[in-house]
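Researcher: Here's my situation. A collaborator sent me these components and asked whether they could plausibly form a single complex. I don't have experimental data yet, so a predicted model of the whole assembly would be a useful starting point for our discussion.
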Amino acid sequence: MKDGRTGDGSGESALRNGDRDKTQERPAARTPARASSNRVSRRDFIGNVAKSAGVACLAAVALDQYIRTARATDAKALRPPGAIKEEEFLAACVRCGLCVRACPYDTLKLATMGEETALGTPYFVARDVPCFMCDDVPCAKACPTGALDREIPNIRHADMGIAVLVDHETCLNYKGMHCSICYRVCPIRDEAITLEKQTIRGRQMIIPTVHSSKCTGCGTCEKQCVLEEAAIRVLPRPLGQGKAGRNHAGRPVTGHGTLKRDL
Amino acid sequence: MGALKPYIERMTSDARSYAAARRGWLFAHRFWLIRRISQLAVLGIFLTGPWLGIWIARGNFASSEIVGVLPLADPFIFLQSLAAWHKPIALAVIGVAFISAFYFLVGGRAYCSWVCPVNVVTDTAYWLREKLGLTRDRKLDKRTRIWVMVAALLASALSGTIAWEFVNPVSLLQRGLIFGMGAGWGVIAAVFMLDLFVTRRGWCSHLCPVGAFYGLIGSKSVVRVSAINRSACTDCGACFKACPEPHVITPALKGAGTHLILSGDCTNCAACIDSCYIDVFQYGNRFAAKHDPSRFLIEPHGVPASQRRETAA
Ligand code: SF4
Ligand code: SF4
Ligand code: SF4
Ligand code: SF4
Ligand code: SF4
């Protein structure tokens, strides 16, 4: 807001000078005063350019700051399959919606004002319409900018996010039942999600367990979870996945915790 | 029709009413009508797909695919993407080349008057401002838009994003109309009110960096409006009132040099052509021959003999 006001001010003074040039210089052109008035207007001109450049810098910083705050919300949005890293995505995606049009299931949409991701960028809400994992990934192939990887070999390489069983207290399998819907609907069940026998508080249970290197984040499990609010949800990887560090010798610690795209 | 006439007259903008009274309403709005049809048609080819299943164009103005092959892409967005250090793919470069070449031909800001849907909003605000007699006009420098454009490119480099797209009302409106508006109407309403209450033609002629960018292309483009017949000018002032960037007319109409309107600010909207009752203006091109008055049989201060007719002034 503050720099906006500065902008108005300098713009106004520049125009006032401009007006003076227009209205007064024509008659003045025939008088000897011309040289000096010219020098003044040149000085004004340079001053105005400096002022405008300053305002432009201020505006640029303000816009940059606005973008940074706006981007804080991006962390929650699921991008189409094949999307490059979020930081690079916003430099590449022109928000054209060709991916949206290419999707036969109307999974994708462009964010409108106030929705959970950057204005106009494509995303999907798994609980509404998940990605149906088309083998040839038509959405990514339609992208004209490289924001989605057109060369993606097949949908198994997609990394829209990762499913996480976020609520152990409401998941029916954790209550000892055999719901397992999430497991049964997964397009790549037994790879991305398995049922693991566990003994919890002395009872045998089968717990849906997601495997991060295989899950594409399509969201079918979240969509189909029988609860009113899904107990299993797809989160973007940085939110949904931990990462093991390195041991004292600097070697990576074994186990899960590697981002899929780094594999 | 007869009963409607007084209403039509009252709705006609001051700038065009002079020509409308002398040459007819249609004469005074002929290019205006074609422009509005063009603006609708450009949106329309993106909407036949989702509405009727007839796919002519996919995507939106930022980047599109026409009849499944021809890629088109917005050059200003492309530039910001480069500033954000994105390495472009070949398809994007081809799309940008097509669009840039097109506007180099037809006039950069032809985008503004023949394509951009915000133009309809701001033209309407300007018309309403005049009809309501609103005169408040907070002065802004016309060059502000150049600095907004520079700021958008700087912010792209700083943030590593296509910065202007976070706020751009042009994208918001065209994308909204094609893909769904959501709460985006608020921004468009703000632009409308800026133009209506605060600054005369505030958005398009002072602030919009997209228009400024196309203006840069326009300053070198081929199709230009020409005041070819300027010796017939009667100083009625209609063209100045109708033009969204009146300063561009002065050198061509009143100057001694070229009769072409060469400023990139000119939107090639033909408001001057529409509003001039004695056909001073016409579309021409940058390479056109010199002013040739002998081609026009004009009485110095009146209507050309061939076009004089009985009209209720
Ligand atoms: S893979 Fe298929 S279902 Fe999933 S977003 Fe792309 S086009 Fe839509
Ligand atoms: S097709 Fe590519 S550039 Fe267009 S909206 Fe989708 S991700 Fe963005
Ligand atoms: S998101 Fe769920 S359904 Fe989709 S692959 Fe992962 S575990 Fe399977
Ligand atoms: S569908 Fe929902 S309730 Fe059923 S097992 Fe999966 S997460 Fe638990
Ligand atoms: S100046 Fe901007 S908003 Fe106005 S018509 Fe041109 S592109 Fe559209």
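Model: Some features of this prediction you could bring to your collaborator: Strands of chain B lie at 57-60, 63-66, 70-73, 223-226, 282-285. The pocket of iron/sulfur cluster (ligand 5) is lined by residues B 111-112, 116, 118-119, 122, 170, 203-204, 208, 210-211 (CB under 6 Å).
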